[in-house]
Amino acid sequence: MKNSILLIILLLFFVNVLSAQTNIYWTDYTTDNIYKSDLDGFNQSTVTAAAACRGIAIDETNGYIYYVDNDNNKIIRKDLDGSNSIDIVTGLVIPTALALDVEGGKIYWSDNDPTKDHISRANLNGTSPEVVISAPADNIYGIALDLVNNKIYWTQVSANKIQKADLNGSNAEDLITGLNNPYGIALDVANNYMYWTDYGTDEVRRATLSGGSSTALVSSGLIYPRSIAIDFQNSKLYWIDSSTDDIKSCALTGGTTTQVVTGIGNGNAIALYGVGFNAPTVTTTTASSITHDSASLGGNVTSDGGATVTERGVVYSTTDSTPTIGEGGVTKDTNGSGTGVFSESIGSLSSSATYYYNAYAINSEGTSYGTVKSFTTDAPLPVTLSNFSAQYVQNQFVKVNWTSESETNMYGYKLYR
């Protein structure tokens, strides 16, 4: 019995350790490998061979690592332990940066084809590729996604600027110009900051998401800083330098830097595992208090994913069986913020109509939905009329007066004799 209890305790311990696992992943252009370590640089190991890899991205939800193979001009997906290799996108020219929208099922990448530099996206399995940003000869080496506001940010080395656009590439705009070779970029949407490396000035810099208040956080000890990543849980920045051959970190506000990993042959890309926030978890509650024109709808935000839930509520529709925010024919009803149970009486509904509805919650990592439910409103209420009186008007018309349950002294019907 004691041995069984001890075994259960040990199993629970290891489950907790695994669930709390945090790692740095990085590429080495000299050895053509991807490596990983703990956040402090200890327990280093080789994950997989990766020919001339300049970009990596981690899908924590499904346990995948995506990376670009510049020797064979393709994007590859493997399990986090380096097994089960699958070519996701092939036929590229100079693939460089990667970014994932796991919730939206999309992968984004830059291809620095000298004749038609662009950012493209496809489904996570590589199907349905499309170009979303065209930027000829601008050398795009950094991509970051703002999935709360549905924006994509990118650095342009040759044009020396940072831009953003909608995820589909529309509404592109310059945010910061006059830079000197900006490279990697990372976003802290919750705190309204973007961070980037600049290997022309050998700096790590920060600005607001709109491009304001640009300032240098680190301006010494760097030679060729490239990819950059944010440890949200510990409020730290990590970046890789291909000339100092190391990975360093500092606080999100700058200050003292710490050398984390040394001896890298030619580091290009970096990604962190287990240190980010997640989208919220929300469930949809069953509709109640249903009448002919109203119903009580709501949900329960059971987890904020580590980041503040800034908005929650329900979406509903009579025509869309899977309603989401912004779709045609879908109505959104906002109901506060934070975690916990929420509900609200929704009025002005149509009688005898079937409504599809879902709860939603939003934080800095994105928008989550519960499970779609449905209900049907009651039939219209019968109206009882009383106190009839009639008055002859003229030309054989009669004006009728009556009283209903909700209104008094109504009139207006004219009856033929």
Topology, element by element:
Elements: H1 2-19, E1 23-28, E2 33-37, E3 45-49, E4 56-59, E5 64-69, E6 74-79, E7 86-89, E8 95-101, E9 106-111, E10 118-123, E11 130-134, E12 140-146, E13 151-156, E14 161-166, E15 173-176, E16 182-188, E17 193-198, E18 203-208, E19 215-218, E20 225-231, E21 236-241, E22 246-251, E23 254-261, E24 267-273, E25 281-284, E26 295-303, E27 311-317, E28 331-334, E29 340-346, E30 354-363, E31 366-369, E32 373-376, E33 386-392, E34 397-403, E35 410-416
Antiparallel strand pairs: 1-2, 1-24, 2-3, 4-5, 5-6, 6-7, 8-9, 9-10, 10-11, 12-13, 13-14, 14-15, 16-17, 17-18, 18-19, 20-21, 21-22, 22-23, 25-26, 26-29, 27-28, 27-30, 30-31, 30-32, 33-34, 34-35
